[in-house]
Amino acid sequence: MKTRRRPYAEQRPQDLGGGVWSVPVPIPGSPLGYTLVYAVESPKGPVLVDAGWNHPEAWQALSGGLATLGIDVSTVRGVVVTHFHPDHAGLAGQVREASGAWIAMHENDAAMVRLMHDFAGDEHTAFQSDMLRRAGADPSEARAASGERPAPPAVPDRELRDGDLVDLPGRKLRAVHTPGHTPGHICLHLEDADRLFTGDHVLPDITPHIGIYPYDREDVDPLGDFLESLERVGELGTLDALPAHEWIFPDVAARAAEIRHHHEEKLDALLALLAGQPEPQTIWEVAAMMTWNKPWDTLPPMLRGMAAGEAAAHLRTLEARGRIRRLPDVELVRFQALDS
């Protein structure tokens, strides 16, 4: 079954067959429009894949949407979260309050959630501002790009690792660790139905944000991890993909290959940009030269900050591959292409 992306107002809960349902849950103020939350049937109560943004309208859409499908939210057995972002994990705590459900996510993202709870709002703002300054943003832009942080999601009760089976009696729902978009992003393979819940890892039309935070980290390579994860998902074969945004589509392997190709082209273009510069470039300067869905000059400060995070992830991958080097500098991070 395949559906096309429509505005949220045109979305409806759907019975997808085989004991799987989808419920569109709005994301207030986001161009994405909504998150597709899935419910998977089991003899001991349904398990949700993701939960949606923590907002009264979203809660009404989730609980009401489940009700139209004949599912009372109080019967939900558990919520398995593909990753900790607020449009996926935000309502998990409220579902737990309503039903006593457990919440599960990968151990790496669980660690991120605990860190968020320990990190006060003013500390977060200062951290972001300093990170942006080291990337090359001027002080006023660094302050404007910091923005407010959503409330952190509920701390999970259960932690998953790659290959673990979710507690879903009578079904086989296996966690596939697919880091990149977040350190603990997981896809979920419904092995008894040849379906893959892809979260944000593989989407049918757009590609997920792959950033690195702080921008100047040298001990991780999120884009490299993402590209490897795409290969791994491709090895699962021509499964039907049930993504968290846009629409359901067939042959996840083919789409994963397209996304890998897109990022390799982007890496080649970035390397050519750097090779053409006579001086080393800051992350902010690199981001301003790259191609985005809107011209850099028209991007609001927060989106510039996200673009810089994505530029930093691409720079880190080129560095890990030995194609560029960073210059030692305490105050600013600069990169330079190496002779090929």
TrEMBL record:
Membrane-spanning parts: none
Region (Disordered): 135-163
Coiled-coil regions listed: none
Keywords assigned: Hydrolase
E.C. code: 3.1.2.6
Gene3D superfamilies: Ribonuclease Z/Hydroxyacylglutathione hydrolase-like (3.60.15.10), Winged helix-like DNA-binding domain superfamily/Winged helix DNA-binding domain (1.10.10.10)
Record SMART domains: Lactamase_B
Hydrolase is among the record's keywords: yes
GO molecular function, one term: hydroxyacylglutathione hydrolase activity
Domain (Metallo-beta-lactamase): residue spans on this chain: 34-245
Enzyme class, broadest EC rank: hydrolase
Protein name: Hydroxyacylglutathione hydrolase
Organism: Nonomuraea coxensis DSM 45129
